């Protein structure tokens, strides 16, 4: 009996769910759970739960901080506890009763960022899930850290006429409602300090536009709006200046650590794939090969005991790197490396007179290996063509995911083919003049 195809029971934006042919019974909850938990959607839901719990916890700690502030104030009168001295307040204007302006800027920029990331920036629903999953994980972690700072230290309110949020004696439902109101700005806590949540949201929006927007003018507009919002936070006395400064650097540090760990994980996967491409053999032992890989990796990076190695592995999982990086991806990278090495060896031995494969990887590899020390030996028209190829390739790298991929791919093929024809014609001319070694050295400098 021939192999039977699996039964497709779900097909959507986040992938497909196919049961093998040997499932003749109705799938159980364990079967569905095993498949779903390895998909993008599960990671997205998990990150959303992480953010919601952290936000509610942070709001609860805000109310408890207000209660401690009232309890330890002189005669339990919050108005008798003056604000801390802030040097920037002495030179900045005070916008009294204008706290709503900060909410307008923060919520407005947040809404625009969410809409643009959903419908205009990300090319697919999987990419959108990746973007928002990263936001949820990082923002949730920042909320947990902010809840910790509010728990250990209580700073006085920034103005004396603040009404503290007291949830003591509230039922669970009333306390939950008050926490939700504080999240969306309906209720203002007095001692919601240490580092600014409004600035944290503004910096998060800035980082999204910085990383994912390919149109720089839009990003610069977002930077300007975020700067105005940060100044309004200080001018309205919503937070101390130190709260704003700490929020900017803590948010920047969180994003830097997250993507640095992700980059380390990708580099380790690439390094392992590179070594497997060189050392794999049918007779090799997996554990012995892994010891060799790890020894060579440590010789290069020299970190005998990797700092936060568990954090790197955790972020790689939370980001879904294991879903995007599989054996097929590693095999494709090894094949590209081997093809590139063969092309380099062939180019060093003879002038290629055949038509090369005109794809994006070929053009990128040629431009990356191109060294400026060989540009002086090329003719005027060759230089113009090379400069045009470089500029066009950089432009395509920024816009090919926005515009039609087929059109940009055809333009890349046209430029690559034209460059190859010019160099081949130059080679034939050089042969007739008896200067073939000279041109061969030019070609070698071009592709190395």
TrEMBL record:
GO terms for biological process: ceramide biosynthetic process. It is found in: Membrane. Residues 190-258 form the Sphingomyelin synthase-like domain. Pfam families: PAP2_C (PF14360). Residues 334-348 have a biased composition (Basic and acidic residues). InterPro entries: Sphingomyelin_synth-like, Sphingomyelin_synth-like_dom. One of its GO terms (molecular function) is ceramide cholinephosphotransferase activity. Its main location: membrane. Signal peptide: none annotated. Belongs to the sphingomyelin synthase family. This is Sphingomyelin synthase-like domain-containing protein.
């Amino acid at each position: 009996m021939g192999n039977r195809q699996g039964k497709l029971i779900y097909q959507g934006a986040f992938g497909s769910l196919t049961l093998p042919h040997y499932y003749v019974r109705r799938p159980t909850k364990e079967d569905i759970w095993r498949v779903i938990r390895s998909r993008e959607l599960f990671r997205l839901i998990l990150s959303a739960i992480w953010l919601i719990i952290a936000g509610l916890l942070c709001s609860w700690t805000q109310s408890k901080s207000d209660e401690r502030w009232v309890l330890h104030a002189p005669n339990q009168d919050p108005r008798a506890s003056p604000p801390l001295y802030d040097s920037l307040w002495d030179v900045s204007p005070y916008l009294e009763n204008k706290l709503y302006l900060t909410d307008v800027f923060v919520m407005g920029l947040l809404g625009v960022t969410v809409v643009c990331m959903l419908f205009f920036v990300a090319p697919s629903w999987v990419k959108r899930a990746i973007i928002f999953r990263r936001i949820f994980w990082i923002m949730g972690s920042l909320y947990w850290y902010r809840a910790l700072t509010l728990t250990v230290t209580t700073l006085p309110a920034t103005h004396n006429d603040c009404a503290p949020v007291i949830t003591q004696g509230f039922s669970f439902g009333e306390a939950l409602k008050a926490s939700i109101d504080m999240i969306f700005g309906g209720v203002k806590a007095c001692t919601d300090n240490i580092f600014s949540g409004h600035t944290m949201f503004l910096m998060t929006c800035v980082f999204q536009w910085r990383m994912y927007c390919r149109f720089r003018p839009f990003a610069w507009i977002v930077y300007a709006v975020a700067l105005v919002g940060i100044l309004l936070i200080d001018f309205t006395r919503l937070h101390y200046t130190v709260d704003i400064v700490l929020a900017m650097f803590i948010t920047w540090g969180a994003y830097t650590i997250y993507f640095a760990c992700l980059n380390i994980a990708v580099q380790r996967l690439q390094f392992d794939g590179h070594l497997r491409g060189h050392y794999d053999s049918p007779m090799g032992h997996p554990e012995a090969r892994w010891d060799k890989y790890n020894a060579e990796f440590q010789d290069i990076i020299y970190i005998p005991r990797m700092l936060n190695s568990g954090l790197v592995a955790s972020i790689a999982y939370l980001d879904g790197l294991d879903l995007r990086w599989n054996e097929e991806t590693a095999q494709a990278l090894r094949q590209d490396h081997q093809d590139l090495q063969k092309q380099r060896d062939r180019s060093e031995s003879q002038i290629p007179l055949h038509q090369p494969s005109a794809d994006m990887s070929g053009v990128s590899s040629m431009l990356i290996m191109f060294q400026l020390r060989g540009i002086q030996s090329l003719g005027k028209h060759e230089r113009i063509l090379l400069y045009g190829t470089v500029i066009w390739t950089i432009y395509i790298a920024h816009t090919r995911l926005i515009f039609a991929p087929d059109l940009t791919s055809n333009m890349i093929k046209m430029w690559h083919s034209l460059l190859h024809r010019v160099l081949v014609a130059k080679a034939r001319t050089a042969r007739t003049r008896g200067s073939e070694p000279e041109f061969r050295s030019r070609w070698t400098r071009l592709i190395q």
